[in-house]
Amino acid sequence: MKMKTTASLVVPLAAGLALTAAAVAPASAAGAPRTHQRSAVAAEVVLGNEDKNRTVVVRSGDVIQVELKGSRSAGGVWAWDYPTSSDFQVLRHIGRGMDGNGNASGTFRAQDRGTAEINSTQECYPAPDWFCPAVIIPWKVTVVVQ
Predict the structure, then answer these.
(1) Which domains does the chain have, with CATH numbers?
(2) Which of 19, 28, 65, 139 holds its CA 20 to 30 A away from the CA of 129?
């Protein structure tokens, strides 16, 4: 009689272990659902003079490169100031450059979600014995980080 009781306990225990093993076993490659991951590589957005007053949408981690072209003439140079971010929490400034031809650049990394502007101004710097008009030209791009 004792043997019969033991046998009746072993069968449910074996069935339970088999079900547990099936539940935790890895699925085969053919039966596993496919997942699509977004590229981990950050995108780079390049902006220039022609992008004035534009709005761009980027992802966190993307890089925004601003390349503003100045102009040189016999009377002077129309030069750009360094591009700047209106909100360093949204767009972090990571590089900048300027040359004697009036060109200026700025590199920004999209950080937190939000909206920020990148701003610069252009003005004339006269050559000796020349005069420039008292004009400042603004440049702005709105960046939305998602």
Answers:
(1) 44-145 (2.60.40.2020)
(2) 139
